[in-house]
């Protein structure tokens, strides 16, 4: 038996080796060794407490995820997932350039080799840890029920303390509380999560900030206001210069009505008109003004606000008096204070032209009878004289004084 086993032993050993080689070839052809890349594996930071001990805050500039290349048999790699791969950055090994090597392993499977462990780096920024105070801005979205308006929403608390990296907090523009008012017609209270925005209007990730509030949300009290429409009335204040007038038809303004929103109690205290004063004292020509409507509201009615158009445009035109020309017959001129026994006669003319200036509405009333023209002959004796023409002018009527009449005073013929 032993002879049979040892017979052709070398040939048998060769056959066994060939069989083993063929077995490996078959196995490798069915389950070969391959490499595979798993992308965006999150990097876990180790020993972060060392940063906190220095009162610094850590910000990852780059390298918070990494692509990991692994090698293993196909059957093993097919069962491998991103969750099986662990990537870490140990802050105790930070370089002087504020970078740290990223190490990747597959702890759950020793048959897998990581090919690029230690080839990638995480770039870090160590910044001062600071705290700042910010007020809220309430941003309402949607529209309340028709005819109603949103008042000044009041957050509680109205101040928030935010902590984080100084470079991040320096970029904060505002902290916004967004509230939906769609279909609302009565006051309501809601809660909302603060959102922080930078100078470009981009939202800052909450993970970079620590907000010091009692809970994650802030309470907001939102008043919903009723409204009332008022007619606008513009009142000129002051006196225009002599010789000029301001007609009501020369006062123009837009809008002519305004809608005011407020609580029912404050709205009930308003009349039906909103009075706006325009100062015209000493002015002529065209006056143009833009008036903020809210500036004329009663300060004690704190809930009132102007909706629609906040500004109104006013144009006031101050015009000179109109001119009125008259021919005054000499026969209509009264001779006053002529001494007894004398007569007087105007020489050579039958009428006197006069030019008057007055308000437009008064011009048609200026007749000879209304003006009562006269000359004062007090103290005159016989002779030829030049005496001024006088008239009993009503107020706001001007004329070119200085008209003189030549007349002869004689003894009265018996």
The helicity comes to 10-25%
Strand content: over 45%
Mean pLDDT: 88
Total helix count?
A: 7
Show unreliable segments.
none
Biggest sheet details: 11 strands, mixed
Number of strands: 32
Span between N and C termini?
A: 200 Å
Structural class by SSE content: mainly beta
Shape: rod-shaped
State Rg.
Answer: 50 Å
Describe the structure.
There is one protein chain. It is built from seven helices and 32 strands. It is mainly beta and 414 residues long. Strands 1, 2, 3, 4, 5, 6, 7, 10, 11, 13 and 14 form an eleven-stranded mixed beta sheet that branches.
Show the helix and strand layout.
Elements: H1 2-6, H2 9-30, E1 33-46, H3 49-53, E2 56-62, E3 65-73, H4 74-79, E4 86-90, E5 99-105, E6 113-114, E7 120-141, E8 149-150, E9 154-156, E10 159-165, H5 166-169, E11 172-180, E12 188-192, E13 195-198, E14 209-212, E15 218-222, E16 224-237, E17 244-245, E18 251-254, E19 257-262, H6 264-268, E20 273-279, E21 285-292, E22 305-307, E23 311-320, E24 322-329, E25 334-336, E26 342-346, E27 351-358, H7 368-371, E28 373-376, E29 383-388, E30 390-391, E31 397-399, E32 404-411
Parallel strand pairs: 1-4, 7-11, 16-20, 25-28
Antiparallel strand pairs: 1-3, 2-7, 3-6, 4-5, 5-7, 7-10, 8-16, 9-15, 10-14, 11-13, 12-15, 16-19, 17-23, 18-23, 19-22, 21-23, 24-27, 26-32, 27-31, 28-30, 29-32
Give the structure's gist in a few sentences.
The chain has 414 residues and is mainly β. It has 7 helices and 32 strands.
Key features?
eleven-stranded mixed sheet; rod-shaped; mainly beta; 414 residues; five-stranded mixed sheet
């Amino acid at each position: 038996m032993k002879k049979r086993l040892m017979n052709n032993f070398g040939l048998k050993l060769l056959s066994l080796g060939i069989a083993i080689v063929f077995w490996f070839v078959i196995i490798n052809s069915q389950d070969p060794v391959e490499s595979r890349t798993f992308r965006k594996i999150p990097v876990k930071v180790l020993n972060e407490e060392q940063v906190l001990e220095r009162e610094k805050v850590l910000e990852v500039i780059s390298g918070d995820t990494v692509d990991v290349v692994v090698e293993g048999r196909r059957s093993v790699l097919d069962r491998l997932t991103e969750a099986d791969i662990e990537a870490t950055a140990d802050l105790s090994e930070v370089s002087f350039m504020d970078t740290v090597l990223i190490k990747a392993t597959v702890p759950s499977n020793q048959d897998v080799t990581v090919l690029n462990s230690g080839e990638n780096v995480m770039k870090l920024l160590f910044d001062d840890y600071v705290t700042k105070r910010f007020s809220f801005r309430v941003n309402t979205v949607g529209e309340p029920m028709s005819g109603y308006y949103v008042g000044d929403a009041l957050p509680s608390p109205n101040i928030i303390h935010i902590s984080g990296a100084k470079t991040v907090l320096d970029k904060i523009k505002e902290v916004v509380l967004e509230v939906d008012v769609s279909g609302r017609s009565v006051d309501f209270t809601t809660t909302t999560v603060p959102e922080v925005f930078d100078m470009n209007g981009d939202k800052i990730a909450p993970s970079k900030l620590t907000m010091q509030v009692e809970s994650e949300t802030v309470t907001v009290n939102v008043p919903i206001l009723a409204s009332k429409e008022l007619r606008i009335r513009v009142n000129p204040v002051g006196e225009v210069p002599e010789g000029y007038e301001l007609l009501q038809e020369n006062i123009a303004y837009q809008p002519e009505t305004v809608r005011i929103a407020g609580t029912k109690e404050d709205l009930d205290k308003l009349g039906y008109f909103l009075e706006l004063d325009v100062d015209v004292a000493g002015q002529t020509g065209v006056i143009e003004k833009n008036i903020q409507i809210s500036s004329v509201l009663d300060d004690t009615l704190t809930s009132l606000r102007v909706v629609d158009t906040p500004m109104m445009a006013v144009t006031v035109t101050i015009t000179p008096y109109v001119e009125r020309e008259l021919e005054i017959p000499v026969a209509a001129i009264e001779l006053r204070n002529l001494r007894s026994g004398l007569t007087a006669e105007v020489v050579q003319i039958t009428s006197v032209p006069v030019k008057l200036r007055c308000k437009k509405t008064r011009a048609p009333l200026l007749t000879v009878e209304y003006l009562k023209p006269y000359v004062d002959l007090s103290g005159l004796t016989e002779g030829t004289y030049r005496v001024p023409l006088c008239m009993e002018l009503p107020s706001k009527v001007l004329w070119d004084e200085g008209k003189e009449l030549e007349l002869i005073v004689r003894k009265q013929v018996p």
